[in-house]
Specification:
Helix content of chain A: 40-55%
Number of strands of chain B: 4
Distance between the termini of chain A: 32 Å
Distance between the termini of chain B: 101 Å
Largest interface: A-B, 50 and 64 residues
CATH class of one domain in chain A: Alpha Beta
Strand content of chain B: 15-25%
Radius of gyration of chain A: 18 Å
Strand content of chain A: 25-35%
Strand order of the largest sheet of chain B: 1-3-4-2
Number of domains of chain B: 1
CATH superfamily of chain B: Hypothetical protein apc22750. Chain B
CATH topology of chain B: Translation Initiation Factor IF3
Shape of chain A: elongated
Strand order of the largest sheet of chain A: 1-4-5-2
Number of strands of chain A: 5
Oligomer: heterodimer
Order of helices and strands of chain B: HEEHHEE
Structural class of chain B: alpha+beta
CATH architecture of one domain in chain A: 2-Layer Sandwich
Radius of gyration of chain B: 26 Å
Structural class of chain A: alpha+beta
Chain lengths: 131, 176
Amino acid sequence: MRLTCQARCNIIRLRTRQTTTLKKGTTMQIVNTETIPGATVVEVKGLVQGNTVRAKNIGRDIAAGFKNMVGGELKGYTELLTESRREALSRMMAQAEALGANAVVNVRFSTSAITSGASEMMAYGTAVVVQ
Amino acid sequence: MFAASSEAMSTADNVGLIINLVVYVGLPLLVLSIGWLIGRVQEQRHLSSLARREAELSGIEVCDLRSPPGFAGAQGRCELVCGEVVIASDVFKRWLFALKNIVGGESRTFKVLFDRARREALLKMKERALELGCNAVCNVRYDSSDIGGNAGGTQKKSSAMAVVLVSGTAWRREEA
């Protein structure tokens, strides 16, 4: 698949962002599906979950107030959601690691608003041992 | 003396009237028109950016089947990929929606907003799948979140935001 210059720039930007924010030792495989192709589930360790509550800070709030008048993507809130998701997933992986699993399957997300400006994001899945 | 004071009062009344007009009619009109103009420009720009990026990333196939045909023979590692986006509506859209609330019916203004947010979130997920070296995404699921709004009742102004989260499993299809 040929890539245009813009797509290549996007990829480079995503790659650098990913390497700076990935936590150490996150080599556990997580998937959305029930099975991992090429591997069989040997043992089911149980349900694992990770959650986080993030609140926006003042800097993002002022920009959001202006953007609420003219519309458009709120990049501050999007970053907030991305960080919440990463944190929830790494907590879930830590719980799975503690149980002795090496993969998490059937991962789902659940979000809820706690108060205006703070949201809780939870990721849950089944920790399994695959071979 | 009475004529002079009545003239002074009428100019004072005029000035008061003008100030009232400016503050209660002119200023909201100005805010609405700024919101409408900039909102419209941003929407057009976003829609054309979406069309361009969708054409670029059309090679990555997306489906919401749990195991699409060919999934069992996937090469490499499968990984969870997510996309998320928050898009705010402008003040003109909310005013239009408040008017529409009086008569009821479908509101097309917010439909376009949510469409944009879903397309953007899906594109972000596809970009992350591409970065991992995958060329297909399966088991795509949409979620929504409510981080704006009057959840705690502490905000005076309502803010309608489209928050979309999408997640899926990226895999590499064997190329024949």
